[in-house]
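## Example record

The block below lists the input lines for one assembly entry, exactly as stored, with component labels intact.
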Amino acid sequence: MGEELGPLQLIFGASIEVQIVILLLLALSVTSWCIIIQRYLVLSSAGRAVRGFEERFWSGIDLGVLYREGSQMQEEGVAATGMENIFRVGFKEFLRLRQQGNVDREAIMEGAQRAMRVAYSREEEKLERHLAFLATVGSVSPYIGLFGTVIGIMNAFIGLASQAQATLQVVAPGIAEALIVTAIGLFAAIPAVVAYNRYSSKVESVTGSYITFTDEFSSILHRQIHTTG
Amino acid sequence: MYSGYRYLVGLNGYPLSALAAVLLHLLALGFILYWNSGSDSSELELVQPTVIKALFIDENPQTRERIERQRQQQIDRQRQQQEAQRQREAEAQRQRDAEAEAERQRQLEQQRLLDAAERQRLLEAERQRQAEQERAEREQEEQRQRELAQQRQRELDAAERARQQEEAQAAAARTEFEVVQSGVALIQQFVQEVWSRPPSARNGMRAVLRINMLPTGEVTDVAIIESSGDAAFDRSAENAVYRAQPFREMEQMPTRIFNANFRTLSLIFQPEDLLN
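Predicted structure tokens for the full assembly:
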């Protein structure tokens, strides 16, 4: 093992502190990849749901029919998410307030809008979940790698001190062993940073479409309340 | 619609993605292992030890002499046979070479004759083709030059016209209109800053106010010319104008422009920055 120098020999030949750091980095990398894939699934399905629901909403369908369709889906066990959830919450509140009879128009609008705002912030939170972890891994794991490298180099130099004659052959394995920790740190950090940037812009675009939809929907409600009374 | 998909990503997709992440890392590890073992085998080939062969040698001198003599005789015989064989082969080879040489000479002669005629013909054709090509190129070049000149002339004309137009426009724009625009924008900004938004305000609401102003910027009267449809909104806009006055910037306005545009000003009040 002393003469062969491959990545695996470096890792298994490293000191115990360095190996602990490597294990920590590997765990971070696995977790961040898990989140990357899970967020990808969630965000792409959210984008698709936005497109699908907008299409249905603007197809000229009656709002009551759309609401009942959603209720039916919910009974079948498919919970409304995203834009549809905002729509359902707002419309439910609107109907409830209007049925009470003696509530004034502005109060109905206010109530429906407040309900939609709450639903919006819940949906936003759902989309943004775990993104902070990706950002943390992206910024911290190079430092952890660096920490492992520093410890490894320290060990190498301590070992060097006992040698009478320091040749390159004595120094090189220790330094290579230390550097591989930095490499693993970067291996964990790069995908996390890329994914974080990509996903946060995606979240922004989806929540932007939620906001636009909320505005448009409340203007429709406003019109309805002022024409029918 | 997405039920199949939702089934795939059951439990919010966590199991699936955890599995995929672990697989990914195992794959990376496997790649490193493979790469490592590849480098191992190449190094092993390099450090193959040299093999030393050891033999027992019979030390009896007589036997050794006999064996030595026999081997010597055998070697001599072999050498003689080889010598004879070589001579025979050399003779045959020489003969074959001579024949081949004669054949080659004949063929070369024929080839030379054919080549000369062919080359002559080819040269002629090539010369003709070149002449034709040159003529065509010359014509094309002339045509292109002519077009280029026309194009340049057209571009120059267009540029000249555009410049003249631009100058005229710029001169007109820099006058009164600009001053009035900036004054109105300033007033709009001041009014919006102090405007307190009534709960019924919506994006896209628009009220037109008539403001009577003194040259000092003080407002004497505000009236709604065009209602937004919401009385609270109109009232709030009116109040905002009163709160924003006096517009001291009006003092620097040239009197002529002030009298023509600001003494009675129609202000469009349409805040755009609402969330809902």
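Residues 61-173 of chain B form the longest helix (113 residues). Confidence is low (pLDDT under 50) at residues 41-48 of chain B.
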